[in-house]
Every structure is written in structure tokens, then in C-alpha cells.
Write the C-alpha cells for this entry.
Amino acid sequence: MATVAKVFYSTYAILLEIAYRAWNVRHKYGFSIGDMAFLMDTPLSFLKKIENPTLNVPPSSLKTNA
């Protein structure tokens, strides 16, 4: 059982380190959490406008499913 715990902890620590380094690099170059809108179910309308400034986003898209 101790071996399983060590493997789990080691894997968790490695993944956490990778995630931290990726976040740190993104933060260093000026990216923000808003740039990761692809992780959300529905990207916010202002992020859609940033990607395509000519896009007219209807007010109905401002509603969330929360």
C-alpha cells in the first residue's frame, strides 16, 4: 500500500510541477486566466470579441447557465 501511495504522490507532484511551470510561463509573458477560456463550457462574449473584433455578439450570449 505504501508503494501505491508513493507512486500516486510522485505522479501528482510531477503533474503539479508541469502545471505550475506552464502557468508561470504564461503569466511571465502577459497571458491571463481569460486566455484559457477554452477550458470553460461557454467562453465569455468579450473573449469572443477579442478573437474577432468584427463579431457582433448578441446580448443573449451574455447569459450563463449557472
